[in-house]
C-alpha cells in the first residue's frame, strides 16, 4: 500500500506506520553486505531500510512494537512474535491507537497476505487492539477507530500479468514448483474487494521505496523487473477489503476516507 500512503501524505493527511518486528530472520540480498558480518545486526539494518522507505513515501511517524521476527517458515525461538502473548501485543498497539487517534487503519487480511506467520498474527493483534483502544488506557482517552481495511492484491490483475508475460515469452510470476511461495496463495477474489485507490502518479515513489529495502529485494525482483507498461497497469490501483465502517460510506469506495471528509 505504498502508493496509498504516498497519495494521502501528498494530500496533507498525517500517516503513521506500526511495525511489529525488525525482520531479523530474513534474507540478506544486498550484494554490498557480507552475510556473516551483517546477520547479527540485520534487525538494525532492516529498521534503517524501513525508515528510509517511509521517508520516501512521506510517512510521518514510524513505531516499532519491539517483537522478534518469526522467520519463514517460522522457527522455534520463544521470543518470536509468533509466540508472543496476543493480549500483551494488543495492549502495546492499543496505546498507540489512543495516542495517534487514526480515522483509518489498514492491516493484513486473516491469511497474512502471502502467508507469513507474523502477518497473520498482526491481523489478529490489530483487531484486539482496536477493540481495547475504544476504552481509556495507556496513551490517553479511548478512541473508536471509524474504519478498518485489509490490504490485498486481486486475482484478476495477477492473471492479467501472467497472460501478458506469457504472450511476450517472458517468465511467469507464478512459482508452481514451491506452492508456499506461489503468489497465487496471497491474492483475493475480485468480488471481495470493496475499495480501490488510484496510485498511478505515485508509482515511481513506490519503486524507490522498494529499492530502499536492499536486504530484501533484488534488482531483478518481480516487483521491480516487470516490463514498464505491464507494471504501470498492474500497480496503478491499490486494492482493499473493508472490514468495517462506523460512518456511512458506499459499498464500493475510491477513497479510504469516504464518509470522513
Q: Which tags fit this structure?
A:
Rossmann fold, 261 residues, 5-stranded mixed sheet, 9 helices, two-stranded parallel ribbon, alpha/beta
Question: Would you mind describing this structure in some detail?
Answer:
This protein has 261 residues and is an alpha/beta fold. The chain has nine helices and seven strands, in the order αβααβαβαβαββαααβ. It has helices at 2-11, 35-38, 42-57, 86-100, 117-133, 155-167, 203-212, 222-225, 228-234; strands at 16-21, 61-67, 104-107, 147-154, 187-188, 195-198, 237-245. Strands 3, 4, 5, 6 and 7 form a five-stranded mixed β-sheet that branches. Strands 1-2 form a two-stranded parallel sheet. Strand 4 (147-154), helix 6 (155-167) and strand 5 (187-188) form a beta-alpha-beta unit. The radius of gyration is 19 Å and the shape is globular. The two termini are 21 Å apart. The relative contact order is 0.17. Residues 177-181 have low confidence and may be disordered.
Amino acid at each position: 500500500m505504498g502508493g496509498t500512503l504516498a497519495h494521502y501524505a501528498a494530500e496533507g493527511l498525517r500517516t503513521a506506520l506500526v511495525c511489529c518486528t525488525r525482520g531479523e530472520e530474513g534474507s540478506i540480498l544486498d550484494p554490498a553486505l557480507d552475510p556473516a558480518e551483517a546477520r547479527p545486526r540485520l534487525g538494525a539494518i532492516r529498521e534503517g531500510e524501513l525508515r528510509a522507505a517511509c521517508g520516501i513515501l512521506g510517512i510521518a511517524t514510524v513505531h516499532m512494537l519491539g517483537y522478534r521476527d518469526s522467520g519463514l517458515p517460522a522457527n522455534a525461538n520463544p521470543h518470536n512474535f509468533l509466540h508472543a502473548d496476543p493480549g500483551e501485543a494488543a495492549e502495546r498497539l492499543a496505546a498507540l491507537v489512543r495516542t495517534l487517534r487514526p480515522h483509518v487503519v489498514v492491516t493484513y487480511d486473516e491469511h497474512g497476505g502471502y502467508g507469513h506467520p507474523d502477518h497473520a498474527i498482526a491481523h489478529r493483534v490489530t483487531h484486539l487492539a482496536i477493540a481495547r483502544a475504544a476504552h481509556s488506557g495507556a496513551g490517553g482517552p479511548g478512541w473508536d477507530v471509524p474504519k478498518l481495511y485489509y490490504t490485498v492484491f486481486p486475482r484478476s490483475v495477477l492473471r492479467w500479468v501472467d497472460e501478458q508475460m506469457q504472450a511476450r515469452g517472458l517468465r511467469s510470476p507464478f512459482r508452481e514448483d514451491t506452492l508456499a511461495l506461489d503468489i497465487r496463495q496471497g491474492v483475493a477474489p475480485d468480488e471481495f474487494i470493496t475499495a480501490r485507490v488510484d496510485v498511478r502518479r505515485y508509482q515511481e515513489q513506490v519503486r524507490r521505496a522498494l529499492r530502499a529495502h536492499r536486504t530484501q529485494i533484488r534488482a531483478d525482483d518481480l516487483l521491480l523487473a516487470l516490463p514498464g507498461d505491464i507494471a504501470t497497469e498492474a500497480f496503478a490501483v491499490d486494492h482493499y477489503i473493508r472490514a468495517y465502517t462506523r460512518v456511512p460510506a458506499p459499498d464500493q469506495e475510491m477513497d479510504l476516507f469516504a464518509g470522513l471528509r
